[in-house]
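Check these lines:
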Amino acid sequence: MKKKETIVYTSGTWDLFHIGHLNILEKSAALGDKLIVGVSTDELIYNYKGIKPVIPFEQRLRIVEAIGVVTKAVPQVVLTDIRQLKEFDVDIVTIGDDWKNKYLEGLEWMKSQPGKQVIYLPYTGGISTTFIKKIIIDNTNEIIQASLAREQKNWTGKDNTNSISEE
């Protein structure tokens, strides 16, 4: 008789994909045979965080499903949806350790099921989507000036990086 494959499920926003996201996916994948990843819809993110993601849902879904350790990426319309956990016969749910003392119905359901596990994974220090957004905001003028300088060079063929004039 063939041994049942271990199915791992994790989910997230996956906006402005960074090394912390990749670490969570790799650590999750290492715990089982297949990794199913929930990608939160734009509506769920807005309802949960009060802000829309930078990258639209369809693009985030494609990015996540293209990661080599991901078996399947699925839309997530409810945070850790019990219906999906049952549908995919999930054995292990992984989630960031910032959820350790917070209530999510799907996590509580998993904990109550024999042979099922919830594993809290540590966040990668020094990186987050919020941190990336802050860097962009803090450096907006420099980003725009560098972009304008490149565009001007492309238009004129001259390197005018130190002399951008207003027209």
Remarks:
- Confidence is low (pLDDT under 50) at residues 163-167.
